[in-house]
Design goal:
Length: about 170
């Protein structure tokens, strides 16, 4: 299971951030119960994510455990020079959650499929902020990405969209 950028500074900003973090924590508990590795990506660098800056730590609401893996990344694509591919070598399917839907979640889903992984994007397990310039609410952006990514075609892997309640049950 992969958790993308669920950092303290982002939880109050994204749509339904606290509820999202709690839902991801519950899903991670079920993943561990089923013997699935939990990996959390943490964005570092850039104006909002200077290492050690307040709020850049992963959310406490996730209830990460010592056996979970934390991987720092410097790009929207979670695979870019991060070691994520090596950490997931034995995973046939990645259950993916996190923020932001239209940035790091989207880029990481596409990168995973390009590397031959199948992805289950958790339908209610990712979030973003509204885009007033495009006239889109966060809910619309999330729904649009669920639809677009579930229809993506790539010979390397597939993307399926499933609600959290139907994963690891």
């Amino acid at each position: 299971m992969l958790i993308v950028d669920m950092q303290e500074v982002l939880i109050p900003v994204v749509w339904q951030g606290p509820e999202l973090a709690d839902r991801i924590a519950e899903l991670a508990d079920r993943a561990r119960t089923n013997g699935v590795q939990v990996i959390a990506l943490q964005q570092v660098g850039g104006p909002m994510f200077e290492p050690g800056a307040p709020g850049t730590e992963l959310s406490r609401r996730l209830r990460l455990r010592p056996e979970d893996t934390v991987i720092r990344k410097t790009a929207t694509d979670g695979f870019y020079e991060s070691g994520l591919h090596q950490a997931l070598e034995d995973a046939g399917t990645i259950v993916l959650t996190g923020v932001g839907t239209d940035y790091c979640v989207d880029a990481t889903v596409r990168a995973a499929v390009s590397r031959g992984f199948d992805v289950i994007l958790v339908e209610d397990g990712h979030s973003t902020v509204p885009d007033p310039e495009a006239g889109l609410t966060a809910e619309q952006i999330i729904a649009r990405h669920n639809r677009i990514l579930s229809n993506a075609v790539h010979p390397g892997g597939t993307v399926k969209v499933r609600p959290a309640g139907k994963i690891f049950t």
